[in-house]
């Protein structure tokens, strides 16, 4: 660990990351053998005629047929030549155009004789995925050095926990989703803050604020839900739902706001600790006031972060709704209303965390903070 | 009253109670941002080119978010210029990666939601998905740029004569504090949103290989990674813009003081 803090150590760590990442990206181009589904490498493409299509809403599009020639890279048909056809549209919402050099998954239907027939299933996408991960890790280490590594570590640790919780949720058929992800939120927050701040009083105060702010926000939301009878909320508009939507929605909101509330409380409380260190004569009331002031400048941008994450995601589907002749109001209800509710609940949590953080910090900070 | 209105009202009251005038302003910025986002969707539906709409709306969102929060003039201006630069760099990264990964539009998991909808609508979905990825990072870029600019302007206030070189170092130091917590905001924000999708994957027993190549999964993970890249880039870019601004200011005051003599 100490070695990583020297210049040579850093340069070496960076070079190693660069090299390993490069090898991984290169490797995904040649990892077909790891897959069970047959993968085809396209060596030649012939483009067929295009046809114009117009739907009921006067949307004009063109569809083009292409014939792909190539070789299978893995499995029992490895090395055999193959020809598949693919249809793509100009808009490409559900299809894609393949090019020479593309690798795609195919489904082989008929293998009587020595002529294979197959249909194109989907593009192989692991290379761009690994490339982007490599880019993020490389940039982190280059610019943030050691603390970049820690930031990445905490994200990775949380990712593993998240996966375990999903598996647990699956094994209980989703009946306990809110409990599982509620307790997960506590573990998440404790682990992350411990990695960022270490185990000390500051970390405990931050943890209490994070959990308190998020919990109160959810309670406020439940009270509002009760009195408005959830009017204007369309659970059926949630995507990919395979279990009871309401607890799932609350679990999503809980997790979504947790990070932002934690971000904010860390900022406020560490500024207040620094302030108290510099001017130990400040009274609890003065500390509370400066906490409120710091908090009120950062809460707006933070709510914005979550808003864009929750709502921008609905862009493609909302656009499709509009193009299919739906009104603006219906498009909003069916695509964006749940995201907006989520942003508002998170916003309430973020705002409530400001007085909570200021109060807890002013009250429970040691009288003299050791430098 | 609908739930959205009541929750919005609760938020507005809380923001005013906690932040006073600044709180009301932030709430207004939030409303306007929603309007801009919706406008972007409507414009693209009316066949305006998605990328240009996104760039214009993106700049407006950044300006709104940054200038409507309370901050001093120097740090707001620096934060805006820096975030605009990050936006442009990000577009240069997102466009080729989206064309490479082809994660546009919808996947097989969406088929139930797509029932009864025509998908051949003549809008380029690679560009729509690119626009989505760019829009989803806007909030994070603005927040990070503002935090770093504010941190640096506080340092400048306390040590007005700090050298440009040590200001660069300070920027990275401020960035280190911010990045860890911002990553958590992004991680939880996005994963909260994908919870249902991940539950779907385990429920339907996708293999690891299928998940890693799934259109929707790759598209969502790419969005997180783009957001992370943008936050990382915001640190050096904001610091650099700040040093340029300070250098310019010092030159001007130096000229003025020599003219005064």
Question: Could you give the topology of this structure?
Answer:
The complex is a heterodimer of chains A (371) and B (261).
Chain A: H1 7-29, E1 39-54, E2 60-72, E3 81-89, E4 103-110, E5 117-123, H2 126-171, H3 177-197, H4 201-228, H5 245-278, H6 284-312, H7 315-323, H8 328-364
Antiparallel strand pairs in A: 1-2, 1-4, 2-3, 4-5
Helix pairs in contact in A: 1-2, 2-3, 3-4, 3-5, 4-5, 4-8, 5-6, 5-8, 6-8, 7-8
Chain B: H1 3-19, H2 21-45, H3 50-67, H4 73-101, H5 111-114, H6 125-158, H7 164-203, H8 208-213, H9 215-260
Note down, in words, how this protein is organized.
The complex is a heterodimer of chains A (371) and B (261). By secondary structure, chain A is an alpha+beta fold. Chain A has 2 domains: 33-124, OB fold (Dihydrolipoamide Acetyltransferase, E2P) (Beta Barrel), CATH 2.40.50; 172-364, Up-down Bundle (Multidrug efflux transporter AcrB transmembrane fold). Chain A has 8 helices and 5 strands; from the N terminus they run H-E-E-E-E-E-H-H-H-H-H-H-H. Chain A has helices at 7-29, 126-171, 177-197, 201-228, 245-278, 284-312, 315-323, 328-364; strands at residues 39-54, 60-72, 81-89, 103-110, 117-123. In chain A, strands 3-2-1-4-5 form a 5-stranded antiparallel β-sheet, with no helix packed on it. In chain A, a hairpin with an 8-residue loop joins strand 2 (60-72) and strand 3 (81-89). In chain A, helix 1 (7-29) crosses helix 2 (126-171), helix 3 packs antiparallel against helix 4 (201-228) and helix 4 (201-228) packs antiparallel against helix 8 (328-364). The longest helix of chain A has 46 residues, at 126-171. The mean pLDDT of chain A is 90. With 261 residues, chain B is mostly helical. Chain B has one domain. The radius of gyration of chain B is 21 Å and the shape is globular. Chain B has helices at residues 3-19, 21-45, 50-67, 73-101, 111-114, 125-158, 164-203, 208-213, 215-260. Chains A and B meet through strand 2, helix 2, helix 3, helix 4 and helix 5 of A and helix 1, helix 2, helix 4, helix 6 and helix 7 of B.
